[in-house]
Amino acid sequence: MELLKKPLRARELVAIVFMIIGLKGGDTTPALFADEAQNALWLSPIISFLVILPPFLTLMYLLKKYKTKNLAELIKHLLGTRVGTILGILLFISAFISMATDMRNIVEEINYLYFPDSPTTVIYAAFLFICLYVANKGLDTIGSLAWAILPVIAVTILSVMFVDLQDSVWQRLFPIFGSGASVVIKDGISLSSVFLEFFLLTIMYQAFQDTRKFRIGIGIGGILSAMLIVSFYAVYTMVFDYNTIDNIAYLYQESTEVIPLGHFFTNISTIFMVGWLFSNFLRFAIFLYIVCWLYGALFQIKRFKGLLVPIGFLAMIISLIPPNFIVNELMVRKTSLHWISPIYLCFPFILWAASYWKERRKQ
Amino acid sequence: MKNPLLILCLFLLPLLLGGCFDQKELEEQAFIVSIGVDNTNQKGVFRFTFQIANPEVGNSASGTSANEPTQEVISVLGTDFLTATNAANATVAKQISLNQSRILIVSEKLARSTDFIYLMQSAPSTVDIKLNAQLVVSKEDAEKYIRHNKPQLESRPHKYYQYMLDRAKETGIIPDAPIVRYFQITEGDADLFIAPYTTTEEENPKFGEEDHYKAGEIPVNGKNQTQFMGSAVFKEGQMIGTLTGEETRFCLMFDSTLTQKDIIASYTDPVKPEFQVAGRLEINNVDVNVNYLKDKQSTIDVYVNYSLNVYAIPSTVNYMKNTEKQRLLEKSINKQIGERADNFIKKTQEEYRAQPFYWSLHVRSKFLNIPEYEKADWMNKVYPNAKVNIHLELRGLEFGKIMRESEIKEVRD
Q1: Which residue blocks in chain A are alpha helix, DSSP H?
Q2: Which of A304, A323, A359 is nearest to A72 (CA)?
Q3: A175 and B18: CB-CB below 8 Å?
Q4: B52 near B72, Cβ under 8 Å?
Q5: Chain B residues with CB inside 8 Å of A115's CB?
Q6: How far apart are CA A308 and CA A292, in angstroms?
């Protein structure tokens, strides 16, 4: 699929990466990491990023080598149409499940914290409607919207950080390895597909005026997001203690809730809801768009925007199956991530092997 | 009918009304300022007392409702916070909202019972209760306390609690005890939690030094007898004793996670021991160093660095110009604080066998992971047997705005 317009620049990608990955600092992902690692939840993402790095760099190397291909085209080119499509479907399904569970978590969070009396389905429908509306506007709108909203989010993040640091005690980071170094490493590797969006974003490789800009954008965005996630998780540990942290589901909101600013501003958590909500709308609009793009590219559907509604709706229906948030987060999401991680960690190497084999055969 | 997509969009618009599910007018809510909890004869059933503020009184815009009372107090039985608010709706017309309540008062009787931790367990999952609300222990029944408490100057009850707690916290006679801290310390299972202690009943008042009191012992003459003084000590989520104001100050002084602004205290004058020297103590820095030895006695070194601003020297000894006497004063005050602190630490080691200073934080870095740390058992094995050394250092001695004490002897001549 050739894109006629190549609308994106590096700064939009930085914003997009920040939205789609950096925001995992503020959703339910920390609760997932804290479940076993306890106060070392901030070390696990470091391990995850380190584990993701080699396959990701391999993928980037391949994309650079085959200049005019994006993720789906690359897979098909290297593995042949049949095998490539199967692998592509695997990637799509993993991304789809990950999106669905994430979306349910966010909706539950909005529901439980801000609209406790509303039915989940109504909030979900409203949420999905907005995401679809944004996603339907196309890539250039998403990109510039992400860039435009970035200041709001940066202000929110910095002020949350400031508020949280008022009440944090750095000694709570110790014992440094939480419930054990082996648990931290195991968690970091098996849950590394929490950050699978890095791989998915390469579907946008051809949407840039110059592919060098993609590499710059994803590099800067990735580093910023990693810094944000690690520092946020560390702050959560410093605010709550190791025994309390694995009881709390919504660490981001809860951390702003327990801290008063002086005696006038005592309930400040709602202030931070605005930026958080904005960014999550955008995050899932992007996620949905990318997942549909991947599907479209796999099956040669050029006008893949038509897929947004069915795929979004399907994700909503599927993600409403788990009876509650805890089952969704700690069982469905965790188990699915355990299965997804090996796929995403391995496929760039499979591609690389295929490319290597192909070249040797040519000679 | 030209654009079907537009019509579809119009059909989707009502979705946005989803935001109105939780719509609640301000008038439809009753804001609770303080919650009181007592135990009853039945296990697992508590008496909840809600103090409901009347937002229309004391408001500059109020004209018609000037004769309404400022607050209403009701009490109902319930098993947890949410069911109790529901039960209260039997008499209160509005929806009861807990999210403005800044203070949770529990009676000493309840705090000392094993039921208490079960009650608290329901607090964090109640969305309405803010975890930064203060936990306060009242000597009498919480219901009685709320009904007796009649602040004279603050007609709006929420302000009263806010100011009272803030001011008392600044002077260090009561600790800062948000509910979240109760959970952190109870779940951490290594330290003691302390909560403000309060009462409206005066009981054998006597004059002592300014902070050697517990609530109820301070001789105050006035209409409102409410006193906040000292603290209740909780071990493993259950109250086990009370501390005086002075002991509470030591807790705050040695705890590096808390801040206190000023302590006004008096000490014996070293030159003329029948007099006292009064001043304001400021803690600049606390450093705790734990030397953990496995299977041996560990040592804990506490370095406290403070400055003193002397306000009153009734003995008229001229400390201002005499550096030698200053050094004497410094030494004497160090010794006095040190002795009292040592006594208090001994008390915690022998009587409570645990400490309220949150020192477990400082031993954590000696361990690599939580299982090792929990096996070492700071609460039961390490601390009660440890050797604690307090190192006090006075940095900066100031004497206020007067250059020298007037010579009273010459005046009386």
Answers
A1: 10-20, 29-37, 43-65, 71-79, 81-113, 120-136, 139-166, 181-190, 197-200, 211-239, 242-245, 251-257, 273-298, 308-319, 325-326, 334-362
A2: A304
A3: no
A4: yes
A5: 19, 21-22
A6: 6
- Chain centre to alpha carbon of residue A17: 8
Q: d(Cα A38, Cα A44) in Å, to the nearest integer?
A: 10
Across the A/B interface, how many CB contacts are shorter than 8 Å? 102
- Nearest Cα to B359, choosing from B384, B334, B391? B384
Chain A residues touching B193 at Cβ < 8 A: none
All structural domains of chain B, each given as residue ranges with its CATH number in brackets, are 26-59+67-248 (no CATH), 262-413 (3.30.300.210)
State whether A38 and B370 contact (CB < 8 Å): yes
ipTM here: 0.80
Residue B303 sits at the chain A interface (C-beta within 8 Å): no
Q: Which of A174, A240, A259 sits opposite B184 (nearest CB)?
A: A240
Contact list, A117 vs chain B (CB under 8 Å): 21-22
Q: How many angstroms separate the CA atoms of A310 and A196, rounded?
A: 22
Under an 8 A CB cutoff, do B183 and A244 touch?
Answer: yes
The angle formed by the CA atoms of residues A117, A118 and A120, to the nearest 5 degrees, is 125
| CATH code given to domain A10-354 | 1.20.1740.10
* CA atoms within 13 Å, Cβ hemisphere of B377: 7
Contact A113 B127 (CB under 8 A): yes
Mutation target for B interface from A120, A237, A242, A316: give the one with most B CBs within 10 A.
A242
Residues of A in contact with B178 (CB under 8 A): 258
* Angstroms from A32 CA to nearest CA on chain B: 18
What are the structural domain ranges in chain A? 10-354
Residues of chain A contacting residue B370, judged by C-beta atoms under 8 Å apart: 38-39, 175, 178-180, 242
Q: What are phi and psi of B19, to 5 degrees?
A: -65, -15
Specify whether the CB–CB gap between B86 and B80 falls below 8 A: no
- Chain A residue closest in CA terms to B131: A258
> Of B113, B110, B118, B187, nearest to B370 (Cα)?
B187
Q: Hey, how many other C-beta atoms are within 10 angstroms of the C-beta on A72?
A: 25
Q: Determine which of B180, B287, B289 to mutate to test the interface with A (most A C-beta atoms within 10 Å).
A: B180
B314 in Cβ contact with B273 (< 8 Å): no
CA distance B55 to A154: 37
| Cα B151 from chain centroid (whole Å) | 19
What's the CA gap between B361 and B188, in Å, rounded? 10
Q: How far apart are CA B309 and CA A87, in angstroms?
A: 75
Question: Distance between CA B75 and CA B36 in Å, rounded?
Answer: 9
Instruction: Determine whether the interchain pair A179/B178 forms a contact, defined as Cβ–Cβ distance below 8 Å.
Output: no
Tens-digit pLDDT string for chain B (413 aa)? 567 778 877 877 776 676 677 777 777 788 888 899 998 888 888 999 998 887 766 555 555 555 667 778 888 898 888 888 888 888 888 888 887 888 899 999 999 998 888 888 888 777 678 888 889 999 888 888 888 887 776 667 777 888 888 877 777 788 888 888 888 888 888 888 999 988 887 776 666 666 667 776 766 666 677 888 888 999 888 899 888 888 888 888 888 887 766 777 788 888 888 888 888 888 888 888 888 888 788 888 988 888 888 887 777 777 777 788 888 888 888 888 888 888 888 888 888 888 888 888 888 888 888 888 888 888 888 888 888 888 888 887 887 766 666 666 666 66
CA dist B64 and B79 (Å) reads: 39
Residue type, B330: E
Nearest to B364 among A174, A243, A263 (CB): A174
Q: Which residue spans within B222-298 are E strands per DSSP?
A: 227-235, 238-243, 263-268, 276-291
